[in-house]
Amino acid sequence: MTIKGHAYRWTKDGLSIIDHLDHVKRSDLVAIDRQIEAAEKNIQALVNGKPALNMLLWGERGLGKSTLVKLLLHEYAEKGLVAIEFRNENVLSLYDLYRDIRKMKGRYVMIYLDDISFDTGDMLYRMFKSVLEGGLEQVPENCIFVATSNKRHMITESAADSGDLYDRDDANEKTSLFARFGLAIGFYPILKKDYLKIVDNYMTIFNIQKYAGWEQEAENYAMDRGGRSGRIAKQFAVHKSIYNYQ
Fold it and tell me: What does the pLDDT look like over 71-85, one tens digit per residue?
């Protein structure tokens, strides 16, 4: 197989190249140095042909999980790193994807599952557990799964509180999907000072002059939208660039 790019999407028709990538710089990621370091060490092992872990990035939305994946792809593409977007409903076609990955000589693949979650009663999680670890077919040595989720265990855990034995067994089975990811990296709500650093960075990117009271205005903007995050910081800067009210 001839690989011309380093980002693909898996569809019913096979691999489709992603031409227009969202490039990310390290300066775009603020206050998640620990998360970057942990993920980067794992990717370095992968692209050096060493054993690497399936990786789960979990936490509230807008805290940099998907952005970190883009950063790693951007920085390690020259070392052979490839990302393949994969939707969880396509799980039955995963073995077809394995066949293509095995043909990617000198390439190291992140099978990327963005914003993955399963509701109570969803049977897909059992299929994923099987293909991640436990099926007869070995996962290609040159690939790992990288998932993002706003839930640590990727499933609804309310059944665990019912007290019913069968409900607890079912909940334990669901949370065992989490165990298939050897590296789980948490993203936690950011402090006000870190949020304002991110806002400051985006205001610089969008050529917005600092002015008296911008910090409080940025904080109010975040509180109106449910809390601080990198995404909210960027939205505030874009909002200022559009309306430029001061």
Answer: 999 999 999 999 999
